[in-house]
Amino acid sequence: MTDTALNGTANINDLPFATDRSRAWRELREAGEAVTSGEEIILTSAAAVEFAAKKPEIFSSARAFDRLGSPVPLIPIAIDPPEHTRFRRMLDPFFSPKKMAEREPELRRQAGELIDAIQAKGHCDVVADLATPFPSQVFLTLFGLPMADRDRLVQWKDSILQFTDPSSAEATPEVLAHAMELFTYLTEHIAERRANTTGNDMLTQLMQNSEEGGMDDNEILGLCFMFVLAGLDTVTSAVGFSLAKLAGDPQLRRRISNDYSLIPAFIEELLRVDGPVPFAPRVTTEEVEVAGRVVPKDTTVMLSYGSADRDPRRYDDADNVHLDSKAVHFAFGRGPHRCLGSHLARLELRIILEEWHTRIPEYSVADGKDPQMPWPTGTMGLKSVPLVFK
Ligand code: HEM
């Protein structure tokens, strides 16, 4: 880690992510392993990101999220170990591959319905017609909430992400009103579930879980908020990137269409090359040396999972998707805060890609235009992916 070239500066917002992600990541990496951007330090190499992610006592998530001033505890991202460990021990079983597999038939049916409607039209915007509604339906299904609330949930989610996006301006009254509506909506449903505990949805199960002391209503509310913040746009983005990539690469698309056993490898590599979470924030609790640089206490450090995932010292031909790659990526993070919903995200992506290719094996981007990614943004994702098919 100490053979770093130089630890220079870069203005993240000025890097050409909107037009050429490979170049933007390269330019950031070339600025060094621990780069100054404004008041923050960005860790760019796989080694430096791994080092910081696995030292939560020095690189604190709680202190990073405190600055947001969220009215609900963002569980478990805004909690540091050892308390964090209690939450993860309690929550991990609810999001295990086995638990998620129990939901597969219902989620597959819902994905199939959305894609049937798209197929009948002969064209679509993948982001608006599939990648946005599906993860919201998944959230409502898992928590046993009414499907009729899907579009309201999408609207609330957009507002809250705007609220928490560091690049956005001050929250408008409309944004604050939407955040309040989601807060009230979830609070009411939690209270209703306390009164009626007969369901088998995740909300009821979380309340009945008495191991590790259980979760109180405020903590459950925080987890629901966190799910909305972390589990919707990330999946939307990965679905958009996946279908845009396959639309533009006929050879890869045909391999996938002809052999669904390649889909899990495609998902992992797609997440590595175009992971939705480019940076994760931490604040240092003490002075620390990382990548040959002394970082003072109280510094905001951004762990660039996106940059680490394209580090040529860790991955061969790092900018491209390789179905035979066995390399473990950073797209779900590292260390104790590694994504709680990774098995759910993988399941959602696999279901979408299978159900899509069963119905629509051949497709291309409308007008042959490259889908655009807005920048700067908190979650990386394509704004729209217009596809046409026979
Ligand atoms: C492709 C989709 C997804 C990606 C790429 C992704 C990525 C990530 C990353 C990088 C982190 C670590 C953040 C950090 O180090 O500070 C994280 C944490 C988290 N994710 Fe995901 N995520 C995805 C989907 C989901 C879903 C579907 C859920 C729903 C439950 C979810 C819930 C969470 C939670 C609760 C955390 C915080 C975990 C903790 O602090 O212990 N994510 N995710």
Commentary on this structure:
The protein has 390 residues and is an alpha+beta fold. The chain has a single domain (12-388), classed as Cytochrome P450 (Cytochrome p450), CATH 1.10.630. 49% of the residues lie in helices and 8% in strands. It contains 17 helices and 10 strands. The strands form 3 sheets. The protein has a 5-stranded mixed sheet. Strand 1 (34-37) and strand 2 (40-43) form a beta hairpin. Helix 6 (104-121) packs across helix 17 and helix 8 (133-142) packs across helix 9. 42% of the residues are buried. Residues 1-5 have low confidence and may be disordered. The chain binds protoporphyrin IX containing FE.
Bin the helical content.
40-55%
- Measured by DSSP, the beta-strand proportion falls in 5-15%
- Class by SSE composition: alpha+beta
Number of helices: 17
Mind sketching the topology for me?
Elements: H1 21-30, E1 34-37, E2 40-43, H2 46-53, E3 59-60, H3 61-66, H4 83-91, H5 97-102, H6 104-121, E4 123-125, H7 126-131, H8 133-142, H9 150-164, H10 173-195, H11 202-208, H12 217-231, H13 233-247, H14 250-258, H15 263-273, E5 280-284, E6 288-290, E7 293-295, E8 300-303, H16 305-308, H17 342-359, E9 364-365, E10 386-388
Helix pairs in contact: 6-8, 6-17, 8-9, 9-10, 10-12, 13-17
Residues 61, 76-77, 88, 226-227, 230-231, 234-235, 238, 271, 275-277, 280, 305, 331-333, 337, 339-341, 344-345 line the site of protoporphyrin IX containing FE (HEM).
